[in-house]
Specification:
Blueprint (H helix, E strand, L loop, with lengths): L5 H10 L5 H33 L4 H48 L4 H5 L3 H43 L1 H48 L1 H6 L3 H53 L5 H42 L22 E8 L10 E8 L4 E5 L6 H8 L7 E6 L2 E2 L5 H5 L2 E4 L10 H5 L8 H10 L3 H4 L19 H15 L3 E5 L7 H15 L3 E5 L11 E6 L2 E6 L1 H7 L1 H19 L5 H6 L6 H21 L1
Parallel strand pairs: 3-8, 3-9, 6-7, 7-8
Antiparallel strand pairs: 1-2, 1-4, 4-5, 9-10
């Protein structure tokens, strides 16, 4: 829950009007002209009664009617200009707030979004900013116009009759009480209502994005029930807000009319006693009705503004979220091209939600420029976490990472991340065309360069078969592509980016045997002269690397070549045995038992098992080379 005061939130919203001061001033001028024109109609009513009706002067009456029409024309023209300017300002401020919030969100680390629901954030961009747009463009204008009308009306009433004006002012505190009390309640309930709407949006976003899983597990009825519950929660939150807002409007209107009725009765007595003329009473009543109507408008708009302040609080919460991993104020510049040497010294890291368990624990590592290094190990060993730390998506609690002997914490974030080309295991495809997806890391690349990268990634074959080739729209999350096709697009993106360090998270996991071999050849070409870190879950991925690091519980427990690790590391031997036994089963259909696998873990069986596994490794390598 936000702790921002209404004044600070309102000031934050108003600050977005500063760049458009001239338009704001023009809108205020037209607002004043329109309001003053309407107020001057009261004098027209007075003249019409006293100099037209009472004096039975038709010529003077005609003049007064023409004067009223002229005043109305001026007022209508001012209303047009005010409405246009205020509506434009509402759209502009809403757009600027969206841009400011989005720009800030792009600076937040993945750790922030791990704790937030995307649909909730989207709701703030849409529902909350649209509500602000409505208030700035319409409600705020109405509030200002009504405030001017109230102030001007009271002044004109005082010129007409001080006595009656004082009686009207006595009723003002009665009107302000419900405005103050119910207005605060409306603001609080509006914030709660918007939170419920955000929760609803988050649920819609989640279920529709994962519609395949929803339908595959026939979860529709459950999701429908849960969605209906959220809709009713929104309705329940809105019900209280609507109740208090209705009470606010009704009470203000009732008290205003009662006050006017009482003052009218007193005024009528003064007319009968000759203290004021009928025209003056008519003018006074005209102003009193205008003031009452304006007060009613203010009360209605006030509740809308309170609701908008609740929405503004949610947007302000986003933009005030501190950037957890900022670029240094004075970053160290690169004085020469990056060679790709990586040093890691005594690195400790735990995720914010796992303070009692280190994902990386005292890690020391030196990767030479141009070296190919594979990371293997069980799930949760820290392989993907290391990738996250290299790109500074998270900040380690202890230790440092050096690129070319420069601490990455001293580098500008954008410059740091421009040294990496990432191919994740789950390929990310945006709702763009093929060429826009491929040039994502290099927006200035030409179409010919895009085609060359796709050819190197062996993606050109299927791209040319698409309906519009490289201009084919791939749909949300690449829904039109298979898993292997998505991965080749991601590899083409990394090839085109042409960066000194490659981070490959099992980049061939979604490919069939034929395409895997093609892409591996493309990756071999890509890796030449570049530092490469490969998260490997399949043994075929690590055959041609310079060094294999075995990770377990956030530490490197062994390092060496495949043959060395097979002889000296039981964890890697178990990993390799399972991989090769699966390969042997698929190739020869041999009946392998779990006893054979278990035997690799025992000291007594190591000597007997190692030659067998080594022979299988040689067979797999020979088979890979032939393919």
């Amino acid at each position: 829950m936000s702790t921002s005061s209404p004044q600070s939130v309102f000031s934050w919203v108003v600050s977005f009007l500063s760049p458009y001061k001239l338009r704001v001033i023009a809108a205020i001028i037209f607002l004043l002209i329109g309001s003053l024109a309407w107020l001057s109609l009261g004098q027209g009513v007075k003249l019409m009664v006293d100099e037209g009706f009472v004096s039975d002067n038709s010529h003077r009456l005609n003049q007064i009617i023409l004067l009223i029409i002229g005043i109305t024309a001026i007022s209508a023209s001012a209303v047009f200009c005010r409405f246009y300017l205020m509506t434009w300002l509402g759209e502009r401020v809403s757009g600027d707030i969206r841009k400011a919030v989005y720009q800030h969100l792009l600076r937040l680390s993945p750790g922030y979004f791990a704790d937030q629901r995307t649909g909730e954030v989207i709701s703030r961009f849409t529902a909350d900013s649209t509500l602000l747009q409505s208030v700035v463009g319409s409600s705020l204008s109405m509030a200002l116009r009504s405030s001017v009308t109230v102030l001007g009306g009271i002044i004109m009433m005082a010129f007409t009759s001080v006595k009656l004006t004082l009686l009207v002012l006595l009723a003002v505190p009665l009107v302000l009480v419900p405005v103050s009390f119910f207005g605060r309640r409306v603001r609080s309930l509006a914030r709660k209502s918007q939170d419920k709407v955000g929760d609803l949006g988050a649920y819609i976003d989640e279920t529709l994005h994962e519609i395949h899983t929803v339908q595959a597990y026939t979860h529709e009825s459950t999701d429908r029930s849960l969605f209906f519950q959220r809709v009713e929660a929104v309705m329940a939150a809105a019900k209280a807000r609507i109740l208090f807002r209705s009470i606010l409007i009704a009470s203000v209107m009732f008290l205003s009319i009662v006050a006017i009725a009482g003052v009218t009765w007193v005024g009528a007595q003064d007319v009968m006693q000759g203290n004021i003329s009928a025209g003056e009473l008519s003018a006074f009543m005209f102003y009193a009705v205008m003031v009452a109507g304006s007060v009613a408008t203010i009360s209605e708009v006030y509740s809308e503004i309170q609701q908008a302040l609740g929405a503004a609080e949610r947007l302000a919460d986003l933009i005030n979220t501190p950037v957890d991993i900022p670029s240094p104020a004075h970053p160290v510049p690169f004085t020469k091209p990056m060679t790709g040497e990586v040093k890691i010294n005594q690195l400790d890291f735990h995720y914010p939600s796992e303070v009692d368990s280190n994902a990386i624990d005292g890690l020391n590592l030196h990767i030479k420029s141009g070296e190919r290094v594979a990371l293997v190990g069980p799930s949760g060993a820290g392989k993907s976490t290391l990738f996250e730390l290299l790109m500074r998506f998270y900040q380690p609690q202890h230790g440092q990472i050096l690129l070319d002997d420069i601490d990455i914490a001293q580098l500008d974030l954008a410059q740091l991340r421009q040294q990496y080309a990432l191919v994740p295991q789950e390929s990310v495809i945006f709702a763009l065309s093929v060429q826009e997806n491929v040039r994502y890391g290099r927006p200035d690349a030409t179409l010919e360069q895009v085609k060359q990268a796709c050819a190197a990634a062996k993606a050109d074959e299927f791209i040319e078969q698409l309906s519009e080739g490289y201009d084919t729209y791939l749909g949300e999350r690449g829904v039109k592509l298979s898993g292997g096709q998505k991965q080749r697009i991601a590899i083409a993106r990394a090839i085109l980016a042409d960066r000194p360090i490659l981070l490959l998270d099992e980049a061939t996991s979604a490919l069939d045997a034929v395409n895997e071999q093609k892409v591996k050849l493309a990756l071999d070409t890509l890796m030449q002269g570049r530092t490469t870190l490969i998260i490997a879950h399949r043994l075929a991925t690590v055959v041609n690397v310079d060094r294999i690091l075995v990770m377990d519980q956030g530490q490197v427990v062994a390092s060496g070549s495949h043959q060395q690790l097979m002889q000296h590391n039981a964890l890697y031997r178990k990993f390799a045995s399972l991989q090769l036994l699966d390969l042997a089963q698929s190739e020869s259909g041999a009946d392998i038992t779990t006893t054979d696998i278990t035997a690799t873990d025992t000291d007594t069986a190591e000597t007997a098992t190692t030659p067998t596994v080594t022979a299988q490794t040689s067979t797999a390598q020979t088979s890979t080379a032939q393919n």
